[in-house]
Amino acid sequence: MSFDLIVRRAHVATAGDVFDADIGITGGRIVALAQSLVAGPATREIDAAGRFVTPGGIDAHCHVDQPMLPPVRMADDFETGTRSAACGGTTTIIPFAAQAKGGSLRAAVTDYHQRAAGKASVDYAFHLIVADPTPQVLQHELPELIAEGCTSFKMYMTYDDLKLADGQILQVLELARREQAMAMIHAENSDAIAFLTERLLAAGKTAPGYHGLSRPAPVEREATHRAITLSELLDVPILIVHVSGGEAIEQIRWARGKGLNIHAETCPQYLFLTQDDLATTGFGGARCVCSPPPRDKANQQVVWDALADGLFTVVSSDHAPFNYDDPNGKRLGGREPPFPYIPNGIPGLETRMPLLFSEGVLTGRLSVQQFVALTATNAAHLYGLYPRKGTLAVGSDADLVIWDTGQPHVIRNEHLHHNVDYTPYEGRELQAWPALTLLRGQVVWDGQHFTGTPGQGQFLRCDRPALARPRTRSGGWRQWLELDA
Ligand code: URP
Ligand code: ZN
Ligand code: ZN
Ligand code: ZN
């Protein structure tokens, strides 16, 4: 067998195993995993020197060049977003093609393909955001887009320009069940947030820290429970995205205990940031304004515990890039806006994998297999990309990361490759960073420099995920209504 490339002496970690092997790569795919592979005359070699080699990350929740209500504008497009992903060990991103209320979902996808074309340097798939489930969307656009490989979509319970009423969510979940698509839900109680926000503003409490107070844990807990209930009524699996702490986790644990098919995602901000980061003096806390907001140290620990015990299916960045010092970003309009007008979201595509490797694996909180499952393999299963993506196996794409765990690496925004003017993790010292990232056998990060090429990233059509299959054949509401009796 001849190889284009051999990665030698890899300490390979998958979601299931850790073993030592050479990795033989031909045509962008892994074709052999064995000790002492024999090089041909044209074979290139990279020496992993016994370091951990994991699958390239899948960041299954990130926002890149997503159209916002003017004047808000995202700082990263597909060029800078995927560059940053590659340098942080992520080789597949799944951002969102977002329908506008009153707009067409199909048009949003067409527009999003144009935004990505020629720019992406890692592979990408699209989730959809369903903001307006009209008959046209439910009967035509959504089933057709699912058939074309966009097999997952997000629904919002909050944000005026995106949110769906419970009845609309049920309609879309019914479709998810029929089409075997993966439904993601942003769970926060919109009316409660509006009420609390109004009271805070009336009391003159407008600083960024009040963002956190306006969306306390019960607001997320209630909506999480409601989302679980809607899922139960139809017997359709859902993923609760960006779970922030113990109250929502309790609901998910309860649902799992009942045998319900509920998946959960968390993000680094809920492991590394707290409400104190929002409430720093002045306007600086705007950098950490995201929803749900970071909670406190005790909640961070609950999230770590839930990662370790298998409650969470995935860790995603929820990268939502807005510049801090920018009239189209956090300082909207060139001022320091009251908290409800601060664009929500923080950057994190490049730091997700190193944060979790350093503070999860190297501290012993997570096994390296759990790390791989949470950052790559499970996302591939959830979104219909397995086994092409998310593992190191014969036949899989040669997307991998060689980890440098020898020396301290201090996070500095000036060293990151996104287009955002800050990182919420500035100055944090990690003990791990990617020494090399391969995308389909091509080096896209060499430990010093981005070496990829805009346009080399390919659009991935997702299969209908096996994890989106309902538990029962008729199930759900038909059973509740005794229609099958
Ligand atoms: O604050 C956040 N998370 N912004 C991004 C949009 C979302 O809800 O995921
Ligand atoms: Zn969300
Ligand atoms: Zn998001
Ligand atoms: Zn560089």
The set of bound ligands, ions and cofactors reads: N-(aminocarbonyl)-beta-alanine, zinc ion
Number of helices: 14
CATH superfamily of the domain at 57-380: Metal-dependent hydrolases
Low-confidence stretches: none
Query: Could you tell me the mean pLDDT?
Result: 97
Identify the CATH class of the domain at 57-380. Answer: Alpha Beta
Based on the structure, what is the oligomeric state of the protein chains? single chain
Report on the structure:
- The protein is 31% helix and 18% strand.
- It is of the alpha/beta class.
- Helix 7 packs parallel to helix 8.
- It has 14 helices and 20 strands.
- The strands form four sheets. Strands 1, 2, 3, 4, 5, 16, 19 and 20 form an eight-stranded mixed β-sheet that branches. A seven-stranded parallel β-sheet has the order 8-10-11-12-13-14-15.
- The structure holds N-(aminocarbonyl)-beta-alanine and zinc ion (3 copies).
- One zinc ion (ZN) binds next to loops.
- InterPro entries: Amidohydro-rel, Hydantoinase/dihydroPyrase, Metal-dep_hydrolase_composite, Metal_Hydrolase, Metallo-dep_Hydrolases_sf.
- One of its GO terms (molecular function) is metal ion binding.
- Keywords: Hydrolase, Metal-binding.
- It comes from Pseudaquabacterium pictum.
